[in-house]
Here is the input.
Amino acid sequence: MLKLFERNTLNVADITDETTAIDVRNLNLWFGNKHVLNDISMRIPKNKITALIGQSGCGKSTLVNCFNRLNDLYDGCKYEGEINIGGRNINSKKVNVSRLRTQVGMVFQRPNPFPMSIYDNVCYGLRLQGIKTRRHLDDAVESALKEAALWDEVKDRLFESANALSGGQQQRLVIARALALKPDILLLDEPTSALDPLTTLFIEELMAELKKRCTIVIVTHNMQQASRVSDYTAFFHQGRLVEYADSDSLFTMPEKKQTEDYITGRYG
Amino acid sequence: MNNMFKGGFNAVHRQSLVISLTAFFTSLLLIALVSVLFLITFRGGAYFWPEPIYDVTYKVTGANESAKSEHKMFAQLYMADEVEQIYQVHFADEQSPYGSQMQLASADIINKELAYGSAEIKTKDGRFVLGQPEFLSTPDSRREDLSLFSDIQNRVSALSAQIEKIRRERLSPIHESLASLDSKGVDQNAPARERLETQFERWQHEVIHLEEERDEYELSVTFANAQAYAIRVSEIKSVDYVSQLSYFEKWQVVFSRIATFLTDSPKQANTSGGVYPALFGTVLMVFLMTIIVTPFGVLAAIYLSEYAPDTPFTTAIRISVSNMAGVPSIVYGVFGLGFFVYTLGGNIDALFFADRLPAPTMGTPGVFWASLTMAILTLPVVIVATEEGLRRVPEGLKRGSYALGATKVETIAKTILPIASPGIMTGVILAIARAAGEVAPLMLVGAVKFAPTLPIDGEFPYLHLERQFMHLGVLIYDGAFHSHTDAKNSSMMFAACLLLLIVVFVLNVLAVILRTRLRKRYLQG
Here is the structure.
């Protein structure tokens, strides 16, 4: 009863400037001539899990890639509008993109551990920042792996190849790799779509644990997952933000017809 | 009925015809490959195999029948013609103690028996004497038993060392002082000069005396007709009693000959001795080439695959890189000679070595220009293989690296290059194998039949990039012009071929091992 009460208190309108982690304002994005994101404005709250749902190609992954400027890698990508993280517009040319990406961690659809040892994988980002002290690295690896709930499984084989791990372990290793940099925001781009249901559940529990220390944005195709784990959910359709609300409201009484059609499986 | 039969016949037989045709050409290919390997291995190996010496008595047919006589010689026999029963003979007698060749019909041989006492005596300048060692003579005109041979050989080398020491420590300093007096314009009759000259003469006398003593140690041998011949012990490299060797001992001789082959320098116009300078030159040239071509090729490939925009211009670059691999190698040789040696080298000479002109320093073919030319020749191999390797790096890993805050350079250095390393290694080793076997361009830009000095020695600056060098391929090419006179049907050319084959084979095996190991390490799970 208490829990229900708690959840009902969530409301998009209540997200204040202080509780906003990512403030997207009038974001437009094109790949060549294709208008992929059309005038997106939303506030993603701190220390909450926000799910982005929608059909394939609706622009939700592209939006997530905007938060760490990974779209810069693609030729012909243009964008305008503001994305404020920590009070700064990250779309500005003055932003140090490498620095931004250490503050905004990302986990991809397919586990992509580097072909090195587990230890080196977790250290990858730290070493790039010039941290070389062995003790410092050891501590960071241990705490990151513990945060990702992987420590007990791999503590005896830290120096073996990460490729020997199972898919679920690899995905948690990738999460640990991002967590080692102590990010404020963690972007998960369909993190469980290549994993089996049990491992998926495990990762979902992990997310609930992780939101205590960082803001999580998750892109998912799995409606149950979105309703299970997220506090807020945003529904996208053809590059537009159709509806953005707390997950309970969005999945129980969606305001828009399009949202209702999508979550009830009438299309998509 | 007839038509049906015909149709079935055609279909079945057309198919089997295609199969047998393709199989035929495949087997031809196999035969060609195996025969190349067999020929090179057999003939190259024969160069090291100790052949027994026979005591041969044969009929000499003169101009008229009455001039018929008999002749005895020590000889090694090689069957040259199975049908006509003609031997190619390598023999030695008192007229040609250092060996000669002839053809001998089996019918003319009156008697042949293994000459147990005779030996193959190899001199330091690469010649052979076939004779029966009898005794050793010493400066005090005594005859020593053959069992003392190694003892006497030690004594002789001690004398040689003494002579060398006097030359080095006494004669050359005096010579230098005299030269400095000359340059200072000191009078011919100055007392200092005269004192030096007396000293010089005294030491020179000493040297001559020691040399005489050394040269009086002699090994007396007899030929088949009991004629005697004396060989200076100081000239002898080895004495092998090849006729009385057991199978095992023959292999010992083979191994010691292989060791000599690998460590000695060529003798007798590259038909005898060893190939050490050529092996050294090949390895050095390939090493320098690798140092040049690897960064060059890898960086170019990184630019092409990671940075260059996809425009018709980059496509044109890619196509021309692939086509560069097909340019005849001699064209690169001419380019190296015309551009590197004459233009670049000539300008370097004019700028830095002007005091030595007109004698060229860098403006002449040398090991550096050869390496540079070979680097350009093998560049396409490295670029294409590296690009192939870079293309195999999964996009997800690159994005993973960027997402952790890595810049493009860091991503390339830490993620892309290690994963592409099997491809890069393959390219580099293919380039090495190509460079090790190439001959034509090298002859234009620095490889010679005989180089008096190695490109690396103890003199400053130790690595002499401007020096000409010897190369296995050039040695083989040179050997092809006089090998056919050899009795064994084998020669140093075949042995050098075998060595080159082994070098390239080992490099390829190394490439495969390295590639599998790296692949395993960077395997995608």
In short: Chain A touches chain B through 32 residues (CB under 8 Å). The first strand of chain A starts at residue 20 and ends at 31. The mean pLDDT of chain A is 87.
